[in-house]
Amino acid sequence: MDKVLTTPIDESVIRTLHVGDTIYVTGCMFTARDDAHHLLLHAESQGEKLPLEPGKMAMFHCGPVVEKVADGWRVVSAGPTTSARMEMFEADFLERFGTRLIIGKGGMGTRTLDALQRVGAVYTHFTGGAGALAARAVRRVPAVYWLEELGIPEAVWVFDVEHFGPLTVTMDAHGKSLYDELELTVNKNLEAIHARIEEEE
Amino acid sequence: MNEQALLEGLVEAIRAAATELPTDVTRALEAARNKEEATGVVQLDAILENVKAAREGSVPMCQDTGIQTFVIRAGADFPLLGKLRGLIEEAVRLATREVPLRPNTVDPLRGGNPGDNTGRFIPYILWEIESGNGCLIHLLPKGGGSENCSALRMLPPGAGVKGIKRFVIDHVVACGGKPCPPGVIGVGIGGGADLAMKLAKLSLLRPIGVRHKDDVVANLEIELLSRINESGVGVMGLGGRVTALDVHVEVAHRHPASLPVGLVYQCWADRRKTVSINAAGHVEVT
């Protein structure tokens, strides 16, 4: 049976997750790339009332392809974007909004890893480029914010999703990062590869 | 010659490139799945399921539908030679609305996006004019995430073949999961800086599993592929046996003082299509 998390996700559920787990999510998520992070943090710091509650939804690092249809919007393709670019915002974002589930690709840095542990949140990896698979899991687009200011890829889209995934937990709320562990293995392999190249000639 | 037929063929090819992964790539991904375990299997199953969903729904397999890139190999007597750029630009505009494609052309200094995937020098067209009266147009739409992992190293010639190998392998490993592996590593050796990069990109037109005709180059491709896959970077950089599906190398002669090595990283969504037009105006998309 697939493990499905429903939003809003309770902290206790997040704390049961570990690096390597595969999960799916059902409920609400919002998209946020570089500009959306900046804008949401700025609005919050100015005491503005936000039109959405980032703490109750999953956050998806994504710039989707969407299509205007009669009754709103249809998601055409929506894979993850590279999360590393959001490292400069993410620890603050988690602290201020309490978002518990990040969906992205490529992983994030140590500041985010520390914040995940403090806040009780996880970072999950969704298959890079799997835009059609993601779009198929979107039931509805209930809202979009800052579309005029930010344009389609950068706007904050709210997706109502069902069984969205697979998502691999790569950074958990216990201070573990798959990327850190893998880096040690890869560096060891790379030393062996260098030695072989030297031997061959 | 029928311009409308060529325009329609180009739009169809742009759509097909965005929504249908070439068979050689699908086969390579399936073979990779059989070599992987754990996370690698989860990720490759998601990729293959995604490829199927894109084909069935005729929707882009990746939300980053790329910068529209065309390699034209045209005969000097091809009747529509002078109209090709205009036709390609028009096809890109139409396809952006009809497929739809993500509007991906941003003015680097002023900001702003025309919204139709055209702009200064874009769509990008590489021209190769030969004798004859037919024309082949290769499409190579390529996403930004993998393009950001391109690299150029002007090696000292003394670094030799060893230096080339180390640069390529170290760079691919350093990129980790960012360019959405497993994909194809295009390498251009020799020439000047621009030619090395151009050859690296052109090498991506070759299907997966097709080796260079020159044995020395072919052997280098095979060795680089094995070493890269020994790194353990794995599918999506999450660890595993398959980091690259293939390595393609192209070589030019170099200046005595230079050893340029260009590297262009192609993600798993190795999208390619070809439009061929003969002198009678028959258009075919393959």
Describe the structure.
The complex is a heterodimer of chains A (201) and B (286). Chain A has 201 residues and is of the alpha/beta class. Chain A has a single domain (3-200), classed as fumarase. Chain A is built from seven helices and nine strands; from the N terminus they run βαβαβββαβαβαβαβα. In chain A, strands 2-3-6-7-9 form a five-stranded mixed beta barrel. In chain A, strands 4-5 form a two-stranded antiparallel ribbon. In chain A, α2 crosses α3 (87-97) and α3 runs parallel beside α4. The mean pLDDT of chain A is 95. In chain B, α1 (3-19) crosses α4, α2 (23-35) runs antiparallel to α3 (39-57) and α6 crosses α8 (215-230). The radius of gyration of chain B is 19 Å and the shape is globular. Chain B is 38% helix and 21% strand. Chain B is built from eight helices and nine strands. With 286 residues, chain B is α+β, with helices and mostly antiparallel strands. At the A-B interface, α5, α6, β9 and α7 of A face α3 and α6 of B.
Give the strand content of chain B: 15-25%
Strand content of chain A: 25-35%
What is the C-alpha radius of gyration of chain B, as a whole number of Å? 19 Å
Structural class of chain B: alpha+beta
Mean pLDDT of chain A: 95
- The count of domains of chain B is 2
Low-confidence stretches of chain B: none
- The CATH class of chain A turns out to be Alpha Beta
Adjacency order of strands in the biggest sheet of chain B: 2-1-3-8-9
* Number of DSSP helical runs of chain A: 7
Q: What's the shape of chain A?
A: globular
- The tally of helices of chain B reads 8
Shape, per Cα inertia axes of chain B: globular
Instruction: Note the run of SSEs of chain B as H and E.
Output: HHHEHEEHEHEHHEEEE
